[in-house]
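Hi F.,

I've been meaning to write this up properly since the lab meeting, where we talked about keeping a consistent format for the predictions we share between groups. The idea is simple: the sequence comes first, exactly as it goes in, then the structure tokens exactly as they come out, then a line or two of notes. No screenshots and no reformatting. I'm using this chain as the first example so we have something concrete to point to.
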Amino acid sequence: MDEIVNRVANSKLVTIDLEDWYVEGVRTVFDIKDWLFEGLLLREKDFRQKVKAHDWSQYQDHFVALTCSTDAIIPGWAFMLITTAIAPYAKKVVIGDLTLLETQLYETQIAAISIAQYKDKPVIIKGCSNKPVPENAYISLVQKLQPVVKSIMYGEACSSVPLYKSKA
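Output, unedited:
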């Protein structure tokens, strides 16, 4: 009887799971709409007072997305002012939603990886995850890997979608 051989385990195929690079920590959305007059108008004096009086220590070690959920026109300095108050506590602050926050966290992780370990290898980027992995993280990873890898696939080893194959 022929021996069953696991060709995937014996191949040079490298699997990357972006979920492994998920940065643990509390994500918080900070909406400034309640600090605006009638939810639409930023009054500088009142706004500055709210920033000064707010307990920023509650965001210790949080990843914070600053936003305004109303159609108010917010001057650029407003989010900068909040950042000066929250920065001593938060690990990361962005203007936007949680998807943008996750994207920036992954961008940092992807920028730090050494691509030498993937040189001339077939790579499969795992698609399913239990943690939030924004689509832009996949795009950034492809851009980083493409110059050095032999090929890039997406999915699982048993059912992958080919994305790129080196011409060399």
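Notes:
The chain has two domains: 7-23+114-165, 27-90.
Residues 7-23+114-165 form one domain.

If this format works for you, I'll send the rest the same way.

G.
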